[in-house]
Amino acid sequence: MVEVFSVLWTVIPQSAPQPTMNCRRCGAARPFRSSGKFRVNANGKQVDAWLIYKCTTCDDTWNRPVLERRSVDGIDPCLLEALHRNDPALADRLAGDIGDLRGGAAAASAAVAVRKEVLCEAPLSAPWLSVRLAVPQPVTLRLDRLLAGELGLSRKRLQALQESGRLDTAPNGPRMLRRPLRDGTCVTLELARECDGATICAAAGDLA
After folding, report:
1. Which of 53, 74, 112, 186 is 20 to 30 A distant from 5 in Cα terms?
2. Radius of gyration of the chain measured on its C-alpha atoms
3. Measured on CA atoms in the order 117, 121, 125, 126, is the torsion positive or negative?
């Protein structure tokens, strides 16, 4: 029977992604953070609304579209009321949604917390490590950066392990290593030939 040290990592964002935009005042690309405030403009029977972001360097503003030329009759009154009163929960939810940032802005990786749970009783000297990811909210952090930070390995070493067939990612195969985290991803790492295998397993289970 092959021994596998198996863990579950639950990845929780600690802050909203900060999109990188060209700042007019700085004259360069800068990360922008959500101010938690909305701008609402009603023109006749149409409504526009934006979530206001501020440059982290100079506080210049950028308005992220929330509603564009929407008919008042077609807007949930609760949503409209929440926009007018700068509802914190709505602002946080929209700021954490990276889906529509991929067009005109590049989202910088937000800080995350990783909750680790050991799923088996295999010893730290087990020849295989299995890391399953639970990602309840979308994040922009790449898989190789997460593994490097949590396992204490360089990204160059992770790439070499993958190329040698000793690191596998499923689903989506090798291309997943350099992509943002996805819920349900499983990383399998062969440690039988790694002299620091026990240290890697200890880090994976937060047992160091």
Report:
1. 112
2. 22
3. negative
End-to-end CA gap in the chain: 26
Task: For residue range 166-199, list pLDDT tens digits in order.
Answer: 999 998 888 889 888 999 999 999 999 999 999 9
Segment 63-115, tens digit of pLDDT: 999 999 999 889 999 999 999 999 999 998 898 877 666 555 666 656 789 99
Q: What is the dihedral of CA 118, 120, 125, 127, to 10 degrees?
A: -110
List Cβ neighbours of 181 (8 Å cut-off, separation of 6 or more): 11, 133, 135, 139, 141, 142, 143, 146
Mean pLDDT within 17-30: 89
The domain spans of the chain are 4-15+110-204, 18-108
Q: Which residues contact 208 (CB under 8 A, 6 or more apart)?
A: 199, 202
